[in-house]
Write the structure tokens for this entry.
Amino acid sequence: MIYLLEDAINGILMGSIYGLAALGLTLIFGVLKVINFAHGSLLMVGMYAAYWAVLLTGAHPYLALVIVLPLMFAFGYLLQAVVIQPIFKAEREVREPITVIIVTTGVWYILDNLALLVFGPQYRNIQDNPLRGKMIEAGEMLISVPKLWGFCAALVTAALVWLFLQKTRMGRAVRATSLDRDAASLQGINPYRIYNIAFGLGTAVAGVAGVALVPFYNVFPTVGVLFDIKCFIIVVLGGLGSIGGALLGGMIIGVIESVGPQFMTATWTEAIVYGLFLGFLFLRPSGLFGVKYDW
Amino acid sequence: MKSYRILAVSALCCGLLLWTAAEAPAQAVVKVGNILPLSGPSASVGLQNKQAQDMAVQEINDAGGIKSLGGAKIQMLYADSESKPEKGVAEAERFINTEKVHILTGAWNSAVSYPVSAVAERYQIPFLVPVSVADKITEQGFKYVFRIAAKDSWWTRDQFAFLKDLQAEFNTKVSTLAFVYENGDWGKGFAEGWKKHAQAGGYKVVLDEPYPSTATDLSPVVQKIKRANPDVLLLTSNAADAILLTNTMAEYKVKPKAIIASGGGHADPSYLKAAGKNARHLFDIVEWETDVNKPGAKETNEKFKKLFGYNLTGESVDAYAAMYVLADALERAASTDPKAIRDALAKTRLTKGPAMIVGYDAIEFDESGQNKHAALVMVQVNDLGKGLERITVWPKASRRAGYKPVFPIP
């Protein structure tokens, strides 16, 4: 029984970090209406940014956020403004331009291979940081401290993003654009600027996920690919565009991955996760919290 | 935009022209087609192989090439397999039909070497395989396939032989084993060997757990190891999961009496760096280690390290030695005819020269084309005051002087 509890806690903690990684994806989709295939690569960039920030300053991993957040926001903002925006403008008439998906795939390949060129194929992690390898011992249970921090970071980030979207003027403009691009621009909102901001925000959230992962995970050029597929499944599970859905979807996957192996071999949990994914696509394509009818 | 493209294309053409001009042979050359994973998931090991072979070829050519062919130089042609079998086969066909190579080598991944061996056999072009370890590659009755490295089944055999010797030496009984391995051809192949040897050796297997190499969280697997509480844990992992497993096991304080790994990810130069002190006392099986007691090994490693910035690995040594095996065969064949090269390769008995930095005393192929002398060593990761290093411990004859293995892990 205690084993189950221990595994479930690990699953919820790890799952919330998956949810955090998926949050940026769902955010960008909610506004731009395109799946960003480069999301895993953005996560990779965030991890490298956090890695170097911690390595060079020797600071607490979460202090690296001071550097990583603005850096990642600027990176996402510029990526959208310079690379993706021209395609949006060229396909003005289309609501969900497929070509943008192809562009983001290109960005994914370019970023991953650039990282391979610049940083080499080595696996890196930070040997000495205050979080590494720390465990809380609660009776017979062991709970990973860096994952607990990641869990808190996920909750705080999700709450802040939600507050931003609900309470600020800019957030309302973002929501308006996501509801109806043309109607929003009639109200004096420049949709392209909103796209830039949404993309920047999504990238910054990927940066937070990078910071959360760096204390206990390896950094390498193709690390994004491992999380990419998981993020897509989570986003579909939770409902495209839903913040709470991303967190909950992440936790569901985390718990399956963590508790499942106690009853079967670890390879089977992957099959269960994909099975669940298919099931959702058949029975509830809008996900847990997605809107049933598209706007 | 358009002018850029034209510019780029013309620049590329100029480059190609220059390249072909520079490659114009002044004398006879021996063309070697080399298929390696130079991009994709195995890019880092592919590059290590290429660099080792380049160094050997450079040495051979600088020393006057193949003398029986009037000083002919060896010319290496490279193709990227991206670790994909179909890509490897296509490149092999291209090498044979378009480039007219005299011999093929590569392809690192067993999954690529296996189909390529069939292509080589069909066109009767010798295929010299330095490291692909899958048993089946030399068990097809082919006449044109030659392998330097020890095969799969020898690895598991030696792991269990080591385990037996270890128990005798330290008078500590091992009765339960746990198998944890990546869920690919390689890991599953090892697990099958383990199961057979465990049964024969009378061990009890308390955990038999494959896991996906792409897993983002291995703590569930580590929990299973902890709860199964084995005496000895056997691992087959790629690099990212090897690091993750080692670190997670340290976090959850999983301490079997010994952990025996199977090379691969555990032998990757970045593993020790990323796992740090958590890797201490791990046993690993390899073809070769930098502290091997063979003349020339140290110098060759130093030269390599100076050129490329990292130590030779067992795989790169096989790749390096393969080029000298080839040079030796060409010297005896005194011909670039693939059939003659094949016959010379089959009669190889190399006991001296730079190739003998390998951990054994001769390279000689059996009927199937397998190097019958290929042997393996066990190393232990430990810190003797100069940072973590890999120290040869088995067979006892090769053990580093003065080192006593740490078993059971304290």
About this structure: The two ends of chain B are 66 Å apart (CA to CA). Chain B has twelve helices and 14 strands.
